Amino acid sequence: MMDICHTLTKIMDATSVDELWQEWLRSMIDDYGFDRLLYGSTRFATGSALGNAGDQLILTNYCEGYLREFVESELYQHGPMLKWALENTGACSWSAISEFVAQQEITPKMQAVFDLNQRYGVVAGYTISFQPINKRSRSAISLAMNQNKSQAQADAVWSKYGDEILLINKVAHTKSLTLPHNTTSGKRLTDRQREVLSWVSDGKTIQDIAKILVVSTQTVEKHLRLARNTLGVETTAQAVLRLALQNQIFVYPV
How far apart are CA 212 and CA 253, in angstroms? Predict the structure, then answer.
């Protein structure tokens, strides 16, 4: 019998996104047979647009070839299950794809998603769309069965363990929202830039920060300018907000 309490405890005790993701993967693969996961989360969505790819948190164990074609090229934005996830919350069997697609106009991009998934054996599984925490947040995960398994087998697993699988994924998703992380852009602040922004978020002026760090005001302004450039924002307030959304305020070094 699967020890769901042990799994949930390890998830809740995780102190990093990497630690969380490893237990998330272990549970889905070892306990339920979903061996390929793709989790995506953004807090900058507008309507059907998911915002800048660099602002999204993406966790996955798919091979590089699949990710290059599906994620890096943003082909995923044309996937039928993503369209479903943007309009719904909860879990959906991939058997529903045919019904969902029947109501859509099949575009060349959507067909490219079908062809790609067929080539990589991504044909049986479930998609979970999580309840948004605000109007601009969107988060979902796709759980793909081993490519030798059928959708009927995936549905059988879900019929028996669906409540457990959904609970584990909801808890893991909620935990991910609390942990410091870097987005997919690969751009990182220095420890000093992060520290300066943390002092700004605490209400300190440039003069205050200079005294605290025993540096000149010009040095503080330089750190803030470089932080804004790295984060791709125009104002220090926007930089603080973006850092806060990554749970990196007062967390340094990372």
Answer: 18
Q: Give the HSE-up count for residue 237: Cα atoms under 13 Å, Cβ half-sphere.
A: 0
Residue type, 128: I
d(CA 42, CA 53): 9
Provide the whole-model pTM.
0.79
Domains of the chain and any CATH numbers:
4-176 (3.30.450.80), 191-245 (1.10.10.10)
Residue 122's contacts (CB-CB under 8 Å, 6 or more residues apart) are: 36, 66, 116, 144, 147
Among the listed residues 183, 192, 184, 203, the one whose alpha carbon sits nearest the alpha carbon of residue 247: 183
pLDDT at 9: 96
Both tokens of residue 23?
């237990």
Separation of alpha carbons 76 and 110, rounded Å: 9
